[in-house]
Amino acid sequence: MEKTYLNNDVIKQIKGFNRLKLTEKQNLLIDKLISNENLKTCYKMYGLCKKCHQPNTSYDWCQLCNAKYFQQDFKNWTSGNNDIDEFIRKAQLRAKIKNEVIEWIEYDKFERVEYLAEGGFGTTFKANWKNGYIIYRDLVRNRWERSESVPVALKCLHNSQDITVEFLRKVRNFSIFFLFFFQLFIISNFFFLFFFSV
Q1: Per-residue pLDDT band at 174 (split at 50, 70, 90)
Q2: Count of domains in the chain?
Q3: Strand 182-187 relative to strand 110-118: parallel, antiparallel, unpaired?
Q4: Measured between alpha carbons, how far is 176 from 25 in angstroms, rounded to an integer?
Q5: Does the residue 1 lie in any domain?
Q6: 27/109 same-domain check
Q7: Pick from 29, 52, 118, 184: most CB atoms within 10 A?
C-alpha cells in the first residue's frame, strides 16, 4: 500500500487553520488541496501532528512519528523469542491509534498479582500494572505519557514456550475485533495481558 502525505505547500496553507472551526472558505480550500479522502478525514478529525505536520491518525496520535519513536526503542527490549519480537515491532509500526499498540512488558511492572482461575489452556491472574498503558508521546519531555496504575487481567498460557507466529496472529486478530474493549500486551514469561476498558 502506497503511503500518501501532504506536501509542504499544502501544509503551509492549512497549518494555521483551526480544524474545529473551519470557515466555509477554509473548507473549500481543504477540499481542493487535499484530494486523498483518508488524509482529509484525518486532518478534519484529528488535526496536524505538531512535529511532522502530517494529519494525525487519532487524537494525540501520529502514526508516522510514533512509528519512529517505537523503532528507536527496539534495541532496548526483547522477549527472547525473535518471532514474538517481530510480531510486536510490526504492530507498533502499524499502530494508527493507541489501542493498536502491543508492548513487551516485564513481569516486575506488575504489583498485587493474585490467582483468579485455572482454565483449559492457561491460568488467569489479576494485577495492577504500575506504569499503565501508553496514552501519547510527550514531545517536550521526549517520552511516552502513560496512564496511571491500572487493574488488568493476566493469562499465563500452558506450554507457551512453543508459541507460533500463527497463534500470535489469531490473538492479534481477536484483539483488533474487540479493539475498544481491551488491548493486548505481551509480558515476560509469556503472559498475555488483557486490559479491559469501560
Answers
A1: low
A2: 2
A3: unpaired
A4: 38
A5: no
A6: no
A7: 184
